[in-house]
Amino acid sequence: MSITNKAGNKATIDVACWLFNIVTSVGIIMVNKALMATYGFTFATTLTGLHFMATTMMTASLRWLGYIPKSHLPFSEVLKFVLFASFSIVGMNVSLMWNSVGFYQIAKLSMIPVTCLLEVVLDEIRYSRDTKLSIVLVLLGVGVCTVTDVSVNARGFIAALIAVWSSSLQQYYVHHLQQKYSLGSFNLLGHTAPVQAVSLLVVGPFLDYWLTDKRVVAYDYTSTSLFFIVLSCTIAIGTNLSQFICIGRFSAVTFQVLGHMKTILVLILGFVFFGKDGLSAQVVMGMAIAILGMIFYGNASSKPGGKERPSPPISNDKPQLEHDRLLDESSDLDNKV
Q1: Using CA atoms, how far apart are residues 79 and 191, in angstroms rounded to an integer?
Q2: Total-model pTM
Q3: 61-97 pLDDT tens trace
Q4: What are phi and psi of 278, to 5 degrees?
Q5: Could you tell me which PANTHER family the record lists for this protein (predicted)?
Q6: Whether 52 contacts 240, CB under 8 Å
Q7: What pLDDT, in 10s, does the model give residues 189-215?
Q8: If you write DSSP's letter for every residue of 63-123 in order, what string do you get?
């Protein structure tokens, strides 16, 4: 009975984590759309730097209050992670600027097979035929409902290539660092968010000026635009945290596959709030295929052999048992969220 209860509790927490990520991710997209389209704050990289500054303030406050235990992460690992994350953010922004929306969507979809390749090569993960087929269905469905015009040039292709690989490596490293150093999501954010905030706030204004020919310091700040900036930063804390929690509990590939549910939800909300001009039979069909693929993926990957790594030899090594105990303890705060 206790095993059943434990499994039920885990399933409940898993669902809550996904809902937390979906709500915050969709919420920040809607707020940022209003901020950029309605109020003209087009400084995406600088805004992301503000997001990580807010996240840094949150983790520092929780650590000061004693809610986040002390932990260690080598600075070389922090720099490696921040390098991937910064290239991901800059690459995605530049890719969207230099490529058509259709090619940008294709680049985002290609992150799933790239992340799969990283798990196969670095973690020796094995996928069953059904799991592979479900991933193909998700890619097909999201592609059908989002990819329209497709045009690309040499510099746009290079930007997309950098964005895809850096984003995939960043998400892979979230799971890798949590497992290797027994870090919870709050701990990992506490180590990485300050460096990301500083790097993006230094580079962001120059990059945004290069992309938009506008200076962030010359923007006409109003009480309404400041409200949306603060609201975006507040929601971003939950978005950053929920991303780390989800990847830590599952994997980068699962996060990518089920994460496309957010794309479908954003489309649906767009039709609800902004009219049905873009709603067509093709879009509806793509949504249906993607949702079926996600359901198929959840079922296939949870079966024995659906997605697994070779079992390590059985050992009574006490340091490994201590590592597992510390990892369980570091996840307690994530579970409470």
Answers
A1: 10
A2: 0.76
A3: 988 988 888 888 999 999 999 999 989 988 888 887 7
A4: -90, 0
A5: SOLUTE CARRIER FAMILY 35
A6: yes
A7: 999 999 999 999 999 999 899 888 999
A8: HHTT-S------HHHHHHHHHHHHHHHHHHHHHHHHS-HHHHHHHHHTHHHHHHHHHHHHH
